[in-house]
Amino acid sequence: MPVNRGIVVDDRLRSDIQNVYALGECAEHRGTCYGLVEPAYEQAKVLAAHLADGMVDYSGSVVATNLKVSGVSVFSAGDFLAADNGEILVFNDERRGTYKKLVVADGRLSGVVLVGDTQDALWYLDLIRTTASIEAIRGDIMFGRAIAQPKAA
Predict the structure, then answer these.
(1) How confident is the model at residue 141 (pLDDT cuts 50, 70, 90)?
(2) Long-range contacts for 11-17 (Cβ within 8 Å, ≥24 apart)?
(3) Which pLDDT band holds residue 115 (cuts at 50, 70, 90)?
(4) Domain map of the chain by residue range?
(5) Using CA atoms, how far apart are residues 36 and 64, in angstroms rounded to an integer?
(6) Which of 34, 103, 123, 125 is least surrounded by Cβ atoms within 10 Å, i.e. has the fewest?
C-alpha cells in the first residue's frame, strides 16, 4: 500500500488494496493530507455514498482556517498563495487594522486572507466553494458582502 505523508487514496478514497479505504488525517488525496476535521467529514460523506451506490467521487476540499492571534481575527481559505497564477487583489488599512487579500482566477474567487475584519469570511468561503463567477461584483468584492452582493442580483 503506497504511503507518502498519508495512505495514498484515489477519488473514491480507495487505497491500492481491494476493499481498503482511508480518510481524514491518515489519507493523502491528490498529494494533500488535510489534517482538519471539516475535510474528514466531507470525505466520510463521500465514502459513505460511494459504499452505498459506488458512484460518488471526492474531488478535494477547500480548506479554511479561522483563528484569533493576539486578539486579532485571522481567516484564510482556498489558494491564498495564488499557486495557480491567480490575480492578487489587496486592501490594507493600517489605521483600522484590516488587511484583505483576494485571489481571483478565471473570473472566480480562489483564495482569501482576512486580518482584523473577518465579518465576511463565510461569504468569501462560499464564493470559493461554489466557484461562482464574480465578474458582476469584481469592482466591489473587496468591500464585502453588504456592498457587493446587491449588485450581483
Answers:
(1) very high
(2) 11/57, 11/58, 11/59, 12/47, 12/50, 12/56, 12/57, 12/58, 13/43, 13/46, 13/47, 13/50, 13/58
(3) very high
(4) 7-53, 64-152
(5) 9
(6) 123
